[in-house]
Amino acid sequence: MNTTTQILLSDDEGVRHAASLLRSGELVAIPTETVYGLGANARNDNAVAAIFAAKKRPQFNPLIVHVPDFDTAEQFVIFSEPAKQIAQAFWPGAITLVLPKLNNSGLSDLVSAGLDTVAIRVPAHPVARAILKEFNGPVAAPSANPSGKISPTSAQHVLSGLNGHIAAVVDGGQCDVGLESTIIGFNNDTPVMLRPGGIPQEAIEKLTGHAIDVSTNGKITAPGQIASHYAPNALIRLNAEVPNNDEAWLGFGQSINHPVSLNLSPSGNLVEAATNLFAYLRELDDEASKANLQKIAAAPIPMKGLGNAINDRLRRAAAPR
Ligand code: TXA
Ligand code: MG
After folding, report:
1. Which label site among 25, 33, 58, 190 has the fewest CB atoms less than 10 Å from its CB?
2. Which tens digit of pLDDT belongs to each residue from 39-54?
3. Exposed/middle/buried for 291, CB within 10 Å: 0-12, 13-18, 19+?
4. Which of 63, 91, 157, 306 to mutate for ligand 1's pocket (most ligand atoms within 8 Å of CB)?
């Protein structure tokens, strides 16, 4: 499909226009605090199907449903006590809960790809919240990038992958968190980590007082979590101490003098590194290709806090394709 993609401002008029496009079954990329999402009316089969077409997703992976608040979420899924505790502590915010779907949810079956659960989240970004309120319905939204590519953290990133394939993008500036939401499922009442993301595991464990199960053992899976993802053009070498001459350098902590390099956080701050990760991968990929370098060497990132999610994304970016 080829169409003209409108760039909407995040003012009242832009918000109203975005909501009316969603109502007409169009695709609108919207800013969230994690990454930009490619939104569609989650009750409309055709609109949801159009998401998969625009992203060129190979299979119908289930999508995250975005709602403006907890009460609205209760119209679509069943909350256990532990789920409610997590939702009330972290929503609005970068956490997605996979919960049993209500029978009369009215959601398109494509949203959960035939599963009897739904992944649901209340985003914190003021523009996302304004659009959800104005639209007054559930919005299905995966990250607004072509399948397998780096997730977008600015409206420009969205356009570089999807211009001409979606009705509009609402420009809400750069995403604060910069990594997708943490996805939590439940095995009976035990929280299970399905995808590390913007809320660190430790924060959830501190709230509940219980360890999160990170070894899913195939009991519950997040079907979209394929190994190769977030792929830049350059190949990535992980946990590199220093770059070789034929590599660009993605640093963390103390800077290294290297001609083609970016530092995720010179002070070694994991929150800053998460915010910069996707934008810097794109930029470094461009710089590497201009300098005729086929590889990016990435510095080691500590496995704590947001470091778990950053390492997860880097591993997928480095995976064989
Ligand atoms: O931060 C985010 O989560 C962003 C913003 C836009 O909200 N969205 C996002 O969506 O990352 P996406 O489609 O790229 O990732 C959603 C993933 C799926 O790939 C799948 O692994 C998981 O959520 N998922 C969705 N529904 C599920 C379900 N019913 N059971 C298990 N996993 C599910
Ligand atoms: Mg994605």
Report:
1. 58
2. 999 999 999 999 999 9
3. exposed
4. 63
